[in-house]
Amino acid sequence: MTTVLSSQLRTSDETYVQNRKAQEQILDELDEQVAAAIAGGGPRYQQRHHDRGRLLARERIELLLDRDASFLELSTLAAWGSQFVVGASIITGIGVVSGVECVLIAHDPTVRGGAMNPYSLKKTLRALEIARVNRLPVINLVESGGADLPSQSELFVHAGKIFHDLTELSSMAIPTVALVFGNSTAGGAYVPGMCDYAVMVDRQAKVFLGGPPLVKMATGEDADDEELGGAAMHARVSGLADHFAVDERDAIRIGRQIVAELHWRKLGPGPSLPADEPLYDPDELLGIAPADIKVPFDPREVLARVVDGSRFGEYKPLYGTSLVTGWTSIHGYPVGVLANARGVLFSEEAEKASEFIQLANQTDTPLIFLQNTTGYMVGKQYEQGGIIKDGSKMINSVANSQVPHITVNMAASFGAGNYGMSGRAYDPRLMFSWAGAKLAVMGAAQLAGVLSIVAKQSAAASGREFDAEADERQRAAIEAQIAEESHSFFVTARLYDDGLIDPRDTRTVLGIALSAAHSNHVAGQRGYGVYRM
């Protein structure tokens, strides 16, 4: 039975105030890193790019998108903490072009000429995967000097997957477009070659397998850039260019026209329920997620500020109460929700989740996973009670579910709970994390403590004296290491999610993600693997 959620939140409580303060601090830190990604190569290189009469990558995206259309940027902090610039010299995201939701992939030429490094490769491949599973047309905004050569050993073999994926998309009748604003050389020349549509800008596009120096060395032939790979040559001679653009704005105009002429139709159903706003202020989400991730919170308070009209039909509310499950809608799209309430998953929660996921598949209803889990319960009582069997049922259900999954890590995602709650390895259509969230095999203090216990047992078994002082130093070092590696910036930098979001934007992000997912068929699994009963 669907009811309207009633919030018990008190914004004057000290806990709320401390939680909000912690969230605001991490969001300030996130804003700094996002600003670094937007800055690309910095003011000097951006100015030099403008002085050449060229638009910046984000300016190209802005002109390509429909007026006032949203742009859900993906993996903004890719490469954070590495030797490469935050953002990894490429911009990816989902935006609306000529009324069609598309995946955009734009090189940032202000960062090492738009050269591809290992992180930009991962980011590109993830964007193409999102396009494939959600059936979204792809628009490449190309201006890249090719591979970052010092990193070639980590790039060359795997980079071929870009061309593989582009031609696979074409075989699936998912359109691919290349708007070539500058260099697209060597292996990069195959991007316009593999795309269904290629637009090249006059006197700027340079598309060739080998430039003048290489041609001179290989054949002794003298040739300039325009003869080898200019837009005019490819439009009039080679036939590689489908459209000849007189300047960048003309290329963007042509790109929008190409998308308009696709006559694209979504395969999934549109919104079917009232999309009224939640009854409670989304701004209050900042005080709900705990400053200390070990402190539980009621995910119904989150749902009350995210779902349509704060309506929620809870499933089995009295059973397996550490996991909240139920039916609702977001921006008019019907969804099922699985949300961790107290972190630990017991057998009851696993059984409840398995049944709920199967029900969602029977009715072709997408699933939203709101993670805040420390994993499945351990201990003699629970092992003897069959926690492995029951957890396996839940993971089986998640793995074989065919309806779209969208996952948000609200606070913590540890251990096999990450798997059972549709973590990255279980292919959610899209996955995001709140800025203060953590991800690891277990908490930092817990992991360091486990290793300390193992060290003590090992010393006792071998008859060695246990060095408590050395163990304490190692324990502190390991705890610091895991704390660093579970930090949301570290996690998102490695593309273990599709981006960090402000909790207040959760409803909007889920709405965009659901709309994108409905570009493809939405149909559930009708059969499951063998369950251990």
Low-confidence stretches: none
**Annotation field: number of helices:** 19
Mean pLDDT: 93
Overall 3D geometry? globular
Could you say which structural class the secondary elements and strand pairing correspond to? alpha/beta
Q: What is the percent of helical residues?
A: 40-55%
Our measurement of the CA-to-CA distance between the termini, rounded to an integer number of angstroms, reads: 29 Å
Total strand segments: 17
Strand content: 15-25%
Query: What's the story with the biggest beta sheet?
Result: 10 strands, mixed
> Nearest-angstrom radius of gyration?
25 Å
Quick recap:
The chain is 41% helix and 19% strand. The chain has 533 residues and is of the alpha/beta class.
Model description:
It is a single chain. The protein is globular and about 80 Å long. The chain is built from 19 helices and 17 strands. The model has no long low-confidence stretch (mean pLDDT 93). It is α/β, with parallel strands linked by helices. Helix 4 (118-134) packs parallel to helix 5, helix 12 (347-362) runs parallel beside helix 14 and helix 16 runs antiparallel to helix 17. A hairpin with a 2-residue loop joins strand 10 (323-330) and strand 11 (333-340). Helix content is 41%, strand content 19%. It has helices at 14-39, 43-51, 57-64, 118-134, 152-171, 190-194, 212-219, 225-229, 231-238, 248-260, 299-303, 347-362, 380-384, 387-400, 417-420, 444-462, 468-485, 488-493, 506-517; strands at 2-4, 71-74, 90-97, 100-107, 138-144, 176-184, 197-201, 243-245, 311-315, 323-330, 333-340, 343-345, 367-376, 405-414, 430-434, 438-440, 500-501. Strands 1, 9, 10, 11, 12, 13, 14, 15, 16 and 17 form a ten-stranded mixed sheet that branches. Strands 2-3-4-5-6-7-8 form a seven-stranded mixed sheet, sandwiched between helices.
